[in-house]
Amino acid sequence: MTGHEGDVYTVKFHPSNTHVATGGYDKTVRLWDVRTGQLVKVFAGHNASVSRVIFNPHGNLIITGSKDSTIRFWDIVSGVCVNSFSSRLGEVTSVEMNRSGSLLLSGSKDNSNRLWDVRLVG
């Protein structure tokens, strides 16, 4: 699986283990088919490196954190960014979602963490 232009900083398996999402220096997220190794889709929109990529529990969204201080929610079928918000706390270095998909915890380069109720964001 090659295709990023630069370092790959983050990888995550889809909940069904059929796909893998990767993100990195080139500001993109790429979705790969695990069985074939083929690129399925490229998600572009961040203005800086993608530092973290995860799937929501249902597997229909890719959630990304970036050095551009934003967190984005991408529809894996359409490739469209369906939601985005700014951490306002500096570069996003990590994101993780709870099992129900209602809460998101982000970490930032300014040594802070922020808990988001994603049901209220948007």
Number of helices: 0
Q: Regions with pLDDT < 50 over 5+ consecutive residues? A: none
The domain tally reads 1
Helix-strand string: EEEEEEEEEEE
Look at the structure and give the CATH class. Answer: Mainly Beta
Alpha carbon gap, first and last residue = 34 Å
Give the C-alpha Rg. 13 Å
Query: Which structural class do you get from the secondary structure elements?
Result: mainly beta
For the residues shown, what is the average pLDDT? Answer: 92
Q: Which architecture does the CATH hierarchy give at level 2?
A: 7 Propeller
Query: What is the beta-strand fraction?
Result: over 45%
Name the CATH homologous superfamily. Answer: YVTN repeat-like/Quinoprotein amine dehydrogenase
How would you sum up the global shape?
globular
Strand element count: 11
CATH topology: Methylamine Dehydrogenase, Chain H
Strand order of the biggest β-sheet: 1-2-3-4
How many strands, what sense, and barrel or not for the largest sheet?
Answer: 4 strands, antiparallel
Percentage of helical residues? under 10%
What does this structure look like?
By secondary structure, this protein is an all-beta fold. The protein has one domain: Methylamine Dehydrogenase, Chain H (7 Propeller). The protein is 0% helix and 53% strand. It contains no helices and eleven strands. Strands 1-2-3-4 form a four-stranded antiparallel beta sheet, with no helix packed on it. A four-stranded antiparallel beta sheet has the order 5-6-7-8, with no helix packed on it. Strands 9-10-11 form a three-stranded antiparallel beta sheet, with no helix packed on it. Strand 6 and strand 7 form a beta hairpin. The radius of gyration is 13 Å and the shape is globular. It starts with 7 loop residues before the first strand and ends in a 5-residue tail after the last strand. The model has no long low-confidence stretch (mean pLDDT 92). Keywords: Repeat, WD repeat.
